[in-house]
Amino acid sequence: MNYNSMIKEKETVMNHEGAKAYAMTPEMELYTAVVTCALSDKFYESKDGRMERIASLIRQVDPEFVAKLAVYTRTQMNLRSIPMFLIVELAKIHNGDSLVKRTIEKTVLRADEIMELLMCYQLRNAEGKSIKKLGKLSRQVQEGLKSAFNRFDEYQFAKYDRSNLEVKLKDALFLVHPKASSPEQQAIFDKIVSGELQTPYTWETQLSELGQKHFATKEEKAEAVKVLWEELIDSGRLGYMALLRNLRNILQANVSPAHIERVASHICDPAKVTKSKQLPFRFLAAYKELMDVTSVHTSSVLSALEKAVRESVNNLEGFEADTSVLVAADVSGSMFTTISPKSSVMNYDIGILLSMLLKSKCSSVISGMFGDSWKVLNLPQENILANTIEMKRREGEVGYSTNGYKVIDYLVDNNIRMDKVMIFTDMQMWDSTYREKHIQKSWAKYRQMYPEAKLYLFDLQGYGQAPVRLVGDEVTLIAGWSDKVFDVLNAVENGAEVLDQIKNIEI
């Protein structure tokens, strides 16, 4: 994803802070906005504003690219809501062939995504009407969902047949009108209509049943909760994500040391970490939830989380031990929003976490954070999550502006040679001193000193504009915050481009 490939013209535009930026091509801007839209963006744009910008960009690019982008974000980046949005908007502008149907078949991977797609369709097409009054679906959307209905079994449907969803499973069945592929599948459809799907054995249903029971004393209830959590752990039906979400509950239930050991071993098992495809911030969220839990086992679980997140970066390529890297995390005011309404993880947590992931991979690393000023923080390599917490605790030491140029000036002033300079930011860099200081100027000076150095800007928010003019191949923008951004970086290092990866997807 070389900057030269993103610049449509050399006209100067402005970012949200009024600093110099350069326009991207519609395809690159769409990609940037899409892969970062899972972050809550309350500081500069409303959620609706982000969605409308994406919808506008969709109309500017080839429909087949939109389809492939939907598949890429769902299957490669493990995002869920934005692929559904892309499909709904694609259906508005494209018809005449089976492109939308084929995209749905490759994108709807869980039973509840049928309802999620319909909820998105309702939001974008119903003008306030309920799904029951929506009328006919787009034919290709309907055909794609018909195919999806025949891919799931009774357990999968029952697991996601939730009463709190705006679009119920029964509503979806009546709206889509799927034709059963077999008598067995028809029997499942009949159970959906009658409300007789067998209740699945999940940790949610088991805890719900326990919550309905009456206990004579608090001690009796606590013992029942302890026994249930031990049974759930022994059952092997607690998925990886469920374990991460419930570590606090498990510790507070006072399960046996043997069960704690089993949980910890599961969390840091290399094969299970790889298979889980968890984003790095999930480990951080779990870690933060345990910080104030009083238990003799808390430390061992925290250690397991550290091992798990370290395991998640073992496959990062292009960062050999002798690679010298500077990693800088933006802790400015615009980064002080949560990544979602229900999360305690802040946008600047992600920047710090990603910088710590890189720090753990290389032996020659300078790490720090910037706001009004730039500050180097020397922290041990092995503690990714603990380092993230420590850096967050100290964010006030650098102020809350976004003077990214000071990171580069530090290297220039101290004549420090780095192979790679990596800045994690929301890209709203400017000069709070009003002396027309820009990262572009600082980088040009540094490149004169060390022509082989490369600058990587990790765009955590995807506002759609790059803050610097790009020269040659020494500056690269990486859009997004999941561990997939490193796959993209590796592709850049090998001369490929992320857009080519997307375009090579078969629909």
At a glance:
The protein has 507 residues and is an alpha/beta fold. It has 24 helices and nine strands. The chain folds into three domains: 26-194, no CATH class; 203-312, no CATH class; 324-503, Rossmann fold (3-Layer(aba) Sandwich), CATH 3.40.50.410.
Average pLDDT, all residues:
82
Give the C-level CATH assignment of the largest domain.
Alpha Beta
Strand content: 5-15%
* CATH third-tier fold name of the largest domain: Rossmann fold
Largest sheet: 6 strands, mixed
**Using only CA atoms, what is the Rg?**
25 Å
Compute the separation of the termini in Å: 22 Å
What is the overall silhouette?
globular
What count of helical segments does DSSP give?
24
Instruction: Tell me the CATH superfamily of the largest domain.
Output: von Willebrand factor, type A domain
Low-confidence stretches: 1-11, 39-46, 466-471
Give me the CATH architecture of the largest domain, please.
3-Layer(aba) Sandwich
Secondary structure: number of strands: 9
Structural class: alpha/beta
Taken together, the total number of domains comes to: 3
Helix content: 40-55%
Cross-sheet strand order for the largest sheet: 5-4-3-6-7-9
